[in-house]
Structure formats: C-alpha cells, structure tokens
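Agenda item 2: 5,6-dihydroxy-NADP complex prediction
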Amino acid sequence: MNNFQYKNPTKILFGKNQIENIVHEIPANAKILLLYGGGSIKKNGIYEQVTKALLNFEVIEFGGIPANPEYTILMDALKIIKEEDITFLLAVGGGSVIDGTKFLSAATLFEGKTPWDILSKNIRILKGMPFGTVLTLPATGSEMNSGAVITRKETQEKFAMGGPGLFPMFSILDPEVIKSIPQRQIANGLADAFTHVLEQYMTYSVGAFLQDRLAESILQTLIEVAPKIMNDTSDYEAASNFMWSCTMALNGLIQQGVPSDWAIHMIGHELTALYGIDHARTLAIITKSHYTLNFEDKKEKLAQYAERVWNISEGTLDKKAKAGIAKTTAFFQSLGIKTKLSEYTTDYKGTAQLISKRFEERGWKGIGERGKVTPKIVEKIIEMSY
Ligand code: NZQ
Ligand code: ZN
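Presented output:
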C-alpha cells in the first residue's frame, strides 16, 4: 500500500427529512446565496422544503445553472455575491450546481487577475467561501469531495479544479429526492459512479486489500440496485443504497494508498465540451477502448474484477480480463446507455486528432496511472470508440 494523508471534513446528514436540519448547520448571521439549476427543484417540492428551513435567514436566489455549469453564467452569480455581501453559499442540485458553487466559493476569495485562471491554470484552492449542499441527484460525489468541473462554451473547454478549501461544510442526502429524477439521469448517475470506482481500481495492484474490496463492494451494490432504481425511483431501499454508493465512489476514501487512472474522465470531458454529450455517457463511450488498448497494464486488475464482481471463475487470466471488459459494456447498455461515439453524433470524424492535439498543447504528455497514455494513444482510444 502507498503512503497517504486523508482528511474529509464534510458532514453528511443522510436520510428522510434531513433538509429541515440545514438550520443547525449554517451560521446564524449568514447572508445566503441559494443556487440551483434549471428549475427541477421547483417542481418536486425540494425548493419549498429548503426555503421553509431557511425562513429565519436572509436569502438571495440564483437559479439557472445549466448541466455542465457554464463559466459566463457563474460570473453573473459572482457579481451578486460581491454586490450583496453574501457570506454563505447553498447549492441545491446535482453535480453541476454543486460544482458551480465550488467555483464561486473559490472565485469569491481569489486574488488573481481573472477567475478563469483558476481553471486554465488549475490553481489549487486552499480557502473558499463556506458552502453547503442539498444533493438532488446522486452521481458525481461532488457533495463530499473538493473537486469541480466547469465548462466554457465560447471556447468549447471543460476544466477540472479543486483543492482542500473546497469541501462542502455539510451535505444533505435525502434519498427521497430521487423520486422525481428522469430515467436518463438515473442511468447517468449509476454509470458515472461505477466509472469513478473503476478509475481508482482498474490500475495495478499495490497490495491494498481493503481499498480493493471497498471498491468491489461499491460496484456490486451499484449492480444490485441498478435494475431496482431504474424501474422504480420511489423504492427507498434502492434509492438510499444508490445515493450512498455514489457518494462513497468519489469521496476520496477508496483512492487512498492506491494508484488512480482518470484517463477515461479526461478524455470524456473533451467529448462533453465538443458535443454536449452527458458526462456519464462519454465515460461509457471511452471505457472499453481504453481497457482494450491498455490491456497489458490492466489485465491483472481486470481479471480480479471479473472474478470478484461478476463471478467469472472459468478461463485463463487474459480470458477473465476480457470478460470483465465485456461485462462492463453490457452493464452500461443495460442502463440504456449507448457505448459508441457515432451513436451520439454523425460529426465525429477528426475528433481523435483534435483531442489528442489539445492534450499535446496542454503539455499532457502521458495520462493514466503510469503516465503512459500519450496523446498518440489517446487518439487511438478515441478512434476505437467511434
Ligand atoms: O437543472 P435542473 O432543473 O435541476 O435539472 C437537472 C439537470 O437537468 C436534473 N435533476 C437534478 N436533480 C433532479 C433533477 N431532475 C429531477 N429531479 C431531481 N431530483 O438532472 C439534470 C442533470 O443534472 P447535473 O447536475 O448536470 O447532473 P450530474 O449530477 O450528473 O452532474 C454532472 C456534472 O458534474 C461533473 C460533470 O462533468 C458534469 O459537469 N462532475 C463532477 C465531479 C466532481 N465534482 O467530483 C466528478 C464527475 O466525474 C463529473 O465530472
Ligand atoms: Zn464522473
């Protein structure tokens, strides 16, 4: 096992009726900016619950943060934060609203020339404005980690940012919010969380038995609840296990002491930036080709995954590893997710070269757990995903 230092300061309030407890988590004299997305919270009762809980606070609202939170819209929110002397941010939404809020938390205290630098130069944020979240969509784990991903439409870019100053102070996880989520987003949440675990697991063994088994148990739980929650979003047992699995998949715990990959995400973000494909679906497009092209480096872990997660006990190591890849693709497809780029756009030719060139220009010489996935290999992975 590798050395590590781990601290996660986010307080989780999990379960039914936890939204009303916001009142105990926000400083009494706070002036709050309540941030939300395109309006789903106004249709499913979450907005009422939150505003009722905030009755004794001074609250200003900022709605309209889109999926794949957009820089220019967030800059409008930043203006309000400054003009209104806001002291606390409350995100009510999925990964996009929470990530947008993290960017604002950082941008408010940022002393550099332009907040864009935080993204383009990936400046590590040590201190941000305090914020909390009410999670409405299990998927990203953003509710309990310190990372965010922000899009700039103008330049078709999507950049990650983060730092220890960007953990939410608290996050409310009420599985009842899942009831109103459309099936497409449930599928996205399952596929995103599943891939988060894979990115931190499908590397090479460092003898970290517990991290491996924690990762495998999250994958198994997602596989078990997937058909139940896809079929009935009001199944509370499935909803609660789905929600907690998504959080555990990316709150930093399973990544301690082990190598991690993240190549699928780095390539996937480019596909969202270029074509607007849902984040989780970009991952489903890339996974198979990435594992197939980097098979030699990953086959031990792939075989272990096939055995322990999918109960494949027959065959050689190579055969099991390949079966592991096939099972992963089949899992995505069982959620109704298409796994080829050409199934999302007809305009895909040249994508591989374009993304590989972008990586080169950014100086990303080699990504993945061994830094061996060069821009040339990225190009091949994308071509194989057409
Ligand atoms: O905007 P509203 O109207 O609220 O509707 C949203 C949105 O259209 C809807 N939704 C959310 N909760 C709902 C609901 N609809 C009905 N009932 C509810 N309870 O779902 C749609 C998608 O929401 P979004 O927040 O965009 O989805 P998700 O949570 O999947 O977030 C995706 C974003 O997170 C980033 C992605 O890149 C993408 O930008 N990621 C963030 C990560 C992190 N911070 O750690 C890691 C991830 O790998 C990912 O990159
Ligand atoms: Zn993701």
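Discussion summary: The domain at 11-176 is CATH 3.40.50.1970 (Rossmann fold).
Owner for follow-up: CH.
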